[in-house]
C-alpha cells in the first residue's frame, strides 16, 4: 500500500476583515491537491494511505470516481472505521464525511477483470482547531454555565426525543470550514438553520450533519455519533429573518430521529423555554435551567431587533459560538418557538443584553408550504452549449425528488415558441447569447427552475480557447491563458464582462481592476470564465475557483496554524 504523508503541512495566508464576525465557529481550511489511483487500475485491489499530521479532521473531495458497476470505493479512518462506501461511478464531485483521525485510507475493490479508471481527489478540508478550543470566543453564557449533556435528561422522554432531531453541522464557505447547529422540521427531512450559517447552494452541497452526537452518560464517557447526512438542497432562505430551509439530497433522517414541530404562537415574557444544540461543535448540550432566571430558563423579552426590528425574543439560557441554528423550544410542549441566532460578547448579561432567537411565528408562514411535501428540484442538460449557426441542441430535464407526474416548460431564450416534455430539441438560426430556462412542476404543484447559457456564434468567427487561469496579487488580477485571443478581446465571468481586459498576445489576457474584479471572484465559488473576441468568437466555459493562498511544503517539520479568535459580536 502506497502511503502519502503531507508533512510540514500548510502555510496559510489568512485575512481578518473589518466586518462583524459571525460566530459560526471556524474550524478548518481547504487546500487544492491532486491525489488519486493509477488510471486505469490493473489489479483487483488498490490502496493509498493519506496522512495529515496535526489535523483535527480530514474531509476529502472526490473530483472523479469512474468504476465498474460492481467495483467499490471504501474510505477508512485511522481507527479502521469505514466512513464512506460507494459502488460504481459518480456523475459529479462530492465531499465525503469527515475523518476525525489524521490518517485516511482509500481502497478500491475491483470486480474480476473490471480494470476501472479509478478515483481522483482534488481538494482536502482539514481542521486546525480542536472543537472545545474553538468554542471559547465569543461566549454567550449568562452567569454560570447551566448547559448540560443531553444524557443528563435521559429520564425526560419529551426532551430526549426532541433532542434527537437536532444535528451538528460542518460546512464550507470560501474555502473555510465552519460549525453550526440545525434541526429537522418535517416528515420529509426538511432541515432548518440560520441564513448566516448557510445561505446558498454551494454551502449546502458541502454540508455534513452528525446525528445523536452526544456523551453516553451525564458528564462522562466518550462522545460518538449515530449516523451522518451529507449534502443538501437549499429550499429557501431569508436574510432578514436569518433562516435557511434545506432538504437532504441522499438521506431521510426524519425516519430515524423524528422532527420538531414549529409553533405559530407568539412567545410571551415569562414562559419557560429550553435550547438543544452543539455549542462549538461539542456533543449535544441542553440549556434547560438558567441561574439568571432563578430556575427554569424563561423568555425574558419580546419584540427585540434582530437583523431587522421586531423579530426576536430574548433569554438568558446559555449558548456558545456554534449554537446558531439551535431550536428554542417551549418548556411545556417542546414545540419550536424561536430559531437561536444571536449571542452576547461576554458575561455582561443585562436586561438589554441577552441571547436572542428569531420568532418562529414569523418564520413559519414563509416555510409552511414546503413542509407538507417532499423537496422538488430540477436540472436541465444540453447536448452542446455553443456552436455556429444553425445550431441544433437537444435538451433533457431531470427531476430531483418531488412527486410524479412532472410537467416541463422550456423557454429557449430566442423568442421562439416554448417546448414541453422531459426531452426537447431546438435549432438556433441567429447568433447571440441565449439563456434557456426550464420550469418544472411536480404532482404536488411545486415548481422548480434551472437554466443554461447558450452561445451561438457566426460561422465565420475565430473560436478562442482557454487553457488556464492564474490569480495574480498586488493588485488583484487574473491571467487568462489560451489560444487565438484577438486584440480587443474581453474576459467574461459568469457571462459578465470584467472591469478591464488587457491584451498581451494571442495566448495571454489580463483581467484587471483590483477590488472591483475581486468582488466578481468570491473565494470558494466555482466560476465560469470565457473569452469573447471582437469578431464574436467565444471560448467554451472554463471552470475556476479562487481559494485562500496556500503553500504545501515539500517536507520537513511543521504544525498546522491555530485558528484566530473570532471577534465577539452578535451572530453565533
Question: What attributes characterize this protein structure?
Answer:
single chain; 572 residues; mainly beta; Jelly Rolls; Thrombin, subunit H; Immunoglobulin-like; 4 domains; 11-stranded antiparallel sheet; 8-stranded antiparallel sheet; 6 helices; 7% helix; globular; disordered C terminus
Task: Describe the 3D structure.
It is a single chain. The protein has 6 helices and 46 strands. It has 4 domains: 2-129, Sandwich (Jelly Rolls); 133-371, Thrombin, subunit H, CATH 2.40.10.120; 376-457, Sandwich (Immunoglobulin-like); 465-550, Immunoglobulin-like, CATH 2.60.40. Strands 3, 5, 8, 10, 13, 14, 15, 16, 17, 18 and 19 form an 11-stranded antiparallel sheet that branches. It has an 8-stranded antiparallel sheet with strand order 12-21-20-27-28-29-25-24. A 5-stranded mixed sheet has the order 1-4-9-6-7, with no helix packed on it. It starts with a strand and ends in a 20-residue tail after the last strand. It has 572 residues and is mainly beta. The protein is 7% helix and 44% strand. The relative contact order is 0.14. A hairpin with a 5-residue loop joins strand 27 and strand 28 (336-342).
Amino acid at each position: 500500500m502506497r502511503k502519502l504523508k503531507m508533512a510540514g503541512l500548510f502555510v496559510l495566508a489568512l485575512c481578518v476583515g473589518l466586518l462583524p464576525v459571525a460566530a459560526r465557529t471556524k474550524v478548518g481550511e481547504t487546500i487544492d491537491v491532486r491525489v488519486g489511483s493509477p488510471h486505469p487500475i490493473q489489479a483487483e485491489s488498490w490502496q493509498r494511505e493519506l496522512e495529515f499530521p496535526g489535523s483535527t479532521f480530514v474531509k476529502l473531495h472526490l473530483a472523479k470516481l469512474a468504476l465498474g458497476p460492481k467495483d467499490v470505493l471504501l474510505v477508512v479512518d485511522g481507527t479502521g472505521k469505514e466512513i464512506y462506501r460507494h459502488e460504481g461511478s459518480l456523475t459529479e464531485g462530492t465531499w465525503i464525511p469527515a475523518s476525525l483521525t489524521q490518517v485516511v485510507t482509500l481502497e478500491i475493490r475491483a470486480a474480476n477483470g473490471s480494470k476501472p479508471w479509478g478515483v481522483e481527489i482534488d481538494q482536502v478540508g482539514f481542521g486546525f482547531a480542536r472543537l472545545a478550543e474553538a468554542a471559547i470566543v465569543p461566549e454567550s453564557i449568562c452567569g454560570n454555565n447551566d448547559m448540560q449533556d443531553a444524557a443528563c435528561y435521559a429520564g425526560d422522554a419529551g426532551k430526549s426525543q426532541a433532542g434527537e432531531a437536532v444535528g451538528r453541522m460542518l460546512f464550507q464557505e470560501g474555502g473555510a470550514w465552519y460549525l453550526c447547529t440545525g434541526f429537522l422540521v418535517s416528515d420529509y427531512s426538511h432541515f432548518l438553520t440560520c441564513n448566516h450559517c448557510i445561505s446558498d447552494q454551494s454551502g449546502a452541497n458541502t454540508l455534513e450533519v452528525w446525528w445523536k452526537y452526544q456523551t453516553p452518560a451525564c458528564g462522562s464517557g466518550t462522545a460518538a455519533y449515530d449516523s451522518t447526512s451529507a449534502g443538501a438542497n437549499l429550499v429557501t432562505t431569508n436574510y432578514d429573518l436569518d433562516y435557511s430551509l434545506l432538504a437532504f439530497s441522499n438521506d431521510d433522517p426524519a425516519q430515524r430521529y423524528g422532527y420538531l414541530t414549529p409553533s405559530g404562537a407568539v412567545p410571551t415574557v415569562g414562559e419557560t423555554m429550553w435550547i438543544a444544540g452543539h455549542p462549538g461543535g461539542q456533543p449535544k448540550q441542553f440549556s434547560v435551567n438558567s441561574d439568571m432566571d432563578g430556575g427554569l430558563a424563561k423568555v425574558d423579552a419580546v419584540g427585540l431587533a434582530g437583523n431587522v426590528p421586531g423579530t426576536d425574543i430574548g433569554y438568558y439560557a446559555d449558548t456558545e459560538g456554534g449554537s446558531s441554528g439551535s431550536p428554542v423550544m417551549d418548556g411545556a410542549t417542546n414545540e419550536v418557538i424561536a430559531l437561536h441566532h444571536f449571542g452576547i460578547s461576554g458575561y455582561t448579561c443585562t436586561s438589554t443584553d441577552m441571547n436572542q432567537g428569531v420568532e418562529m411565528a414569523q418564520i413559519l408562514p414563509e416555510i409552511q408550504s414546503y413542509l407538507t411535501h417532499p423537496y422538488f428540484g430540477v436540472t436541465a442538460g444540453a447536448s452542446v452549449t455553443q456552436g455556429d449557426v444553425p445550431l441544433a441542441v437537444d435538451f433533457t430535464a431531470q427531476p430531483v425528488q418531488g412527486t410524479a407526474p412532472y410537467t416541463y416548460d422550456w423557454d429557449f431564450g430566442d423568442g421562439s415558441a416554448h417546448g414541453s416534455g422531459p426531452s426537447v430539441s431546438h435549432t438556433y438560426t441567429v447568433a447571440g447569447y441565449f439563456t434557456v430556462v426550464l420550469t418544472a412542476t411536480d404532482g404536488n404543484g411545486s415548481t422548480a427552475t434551472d437554466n443554461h447559457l447558450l452561445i451561438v456564434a457566426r460561422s465565420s468567427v475565430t473560436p478562442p480557447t482557454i487553457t488556464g487561469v492564474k490569480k495574480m496579487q498586488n493588485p488583484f488580477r487574473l491571467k487568462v491563458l489560451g489560444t487565438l485571443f484577438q486584440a480587443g478581446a474581453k474576459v467574461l465571468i459568469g457571462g459578465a464582462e470584467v472591469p478591464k481586459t488587457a491584451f498581451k498576445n494571442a495566448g495571454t489576457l489580463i483581467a484587471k481592476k483590483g477590488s472591483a474584479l475581486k468582488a466578481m471572484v468570491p473565494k470558494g465559488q466555482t466560476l465560469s470564465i470565457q473569452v469573447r473576441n471582437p469578431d464574436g468568437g467565444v471560448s467554451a466555459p472554463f471552470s475556476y475557483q479562487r481559494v485562500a493562498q496556500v503553500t504545501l511544503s515539500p517536507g520537513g517539520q511543521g504544525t498546522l496554524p491555530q485558528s484566530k479568535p473570532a471577534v465577539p459580536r452578535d451572530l453565533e
